């Protein structure tokens, strides 16, 4: 608010954490500075790319660069987010929407939670196991097991850990809808900017 920290110094996850902070004063300040999280309709700006010819090699590069930390396809990548195996070419529009508007339809298994520990520290991630003795909080490259007696509260969120910039960056758009067997060369990544 006073300009000491540039508004663009925070990541999308950090901004979402502030927008949904348990302290309502922090939430109000974050909303004042950054507005509401609203990716609805963002997919429409990329729809023309669905009609362009792509490159299987570039689609694979984009997947490895932007998606593989969290998602897996044909044995490559992480297992944090949903697997991409089995997408059919006719599902490109749905894949586009899921990428461009990650907050729109979050499956329960991938819902983000903010876990407040008794020492007031917050941990943000996906609570994948919750038992009487402990809970497991997962992040893309790590996980934390918290004894239940260290947990003050858990706050489920309505936003995705997938970065809002996943659909675009340097004019590239992931258009390579993985089929059941391979990167489909007819559907892969294209450059959406004429100057690229």
Brief write-up:
With 196 residues, this protein is α+β, with helices and mostly antiparallel strands.
Q: Shape, please?
A: globular
- Strand arrangement, major sheet: 6-5-4-3-7
Spans of 5+ residues with little confidence (pLDDT < 50)? 169-175, 177-196
- How do the SSEs run, as a string of H and E? HHHEEHEEEEEEE
How far apart are the termini?
37 Å
Radius of gyration: 19 Å
Quote the beta fraction.
15-25%
Query: What count of helical segments does DSSP give?
Result: 4
DSSP summary, beta strand count: 9
- As a percent range, the share of helical residues equals 10-25%
Structural class assignment? alpha+beta
Largest sheet: 5 strands, antiparallel
Estimate the mean pLDDT confidence.
75
Give a description of the structure.
With 196 residues, this protein is an alpha+beta fold. The protein is built from 4 helices and 9 strands, in the order H-H-H-E-E-H-E-E-E-E-E-E-E. The strands form 3 sheets. Strands 6-5-4-3-7 form a 5-stranded antiparallel β-sheet, with no helix packed on it. Strands 1-2 form a two-stranded antiparallel ribbon. The longest helix has 12 residues, at 56-67. The radius of gyration is 19 Å and the shape is globular. The two termini are 37 Å apart. Mean pLDDT is 75; it is low at 169-175 and 177-196.
Task: Give the tags.
single chain; alpha+beta; five-stranded antiparallel β-sheet; two-stranded antiparallel ribbon; 21% strand; disordered C terminus
Write the layout of secondary structure elements.
Elements lengths: L11 H8 L4 H11 L21 H12 L4 E2 L2 E2 L14 H9 L11 E6 L4 E9 L3 E6 L2 E6 L3 E6 L15 E2 L16 E2 L5
Antiparallel strand pairs: 1-2, 3-4, 3-7, 4-5, 5-6, 8-9
């Amino acid at each position: 608010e006073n300009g000491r920290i540039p508004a663009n110094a925070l990541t999308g996850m950090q901004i979402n954490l502030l927008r949904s902070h348990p302290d309502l004063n922090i939430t109000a300040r974050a909303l004042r500075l950054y507005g509401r999280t609203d990716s609805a309709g963002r997919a429409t700006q990329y729809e023309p790319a669905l009609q362009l010819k792509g490159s299987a090699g570039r689609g694979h590069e984009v997947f490895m660069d932007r998606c593989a930390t969290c998602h897996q396809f044909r044995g490559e990548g992480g297992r944090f987010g949903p697997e991409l195996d089995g997408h059919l070419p006719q599902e490109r529009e749905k894949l586009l929407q899921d990428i461009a508007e990650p907050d729109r339809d979050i499956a329960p298994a991938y819902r983000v939670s903010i876990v407040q520990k008794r020492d007031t520290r917050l941990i943000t991630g996906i609570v994948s196991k919750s038992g009487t003795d402990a809970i497991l909080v997962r992040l893309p490259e790590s996980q934390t097991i918290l004894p239940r007696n260290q947990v003050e509260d858990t706050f489920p969120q309505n936003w995705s850990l997938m970065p809002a910039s996943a659909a675009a960056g340097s004019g590239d758009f992931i258009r390579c809808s993985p089929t059941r067997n391979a990167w489909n060369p007819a559907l892969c990544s294209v450059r959406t900017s004429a100057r690229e």
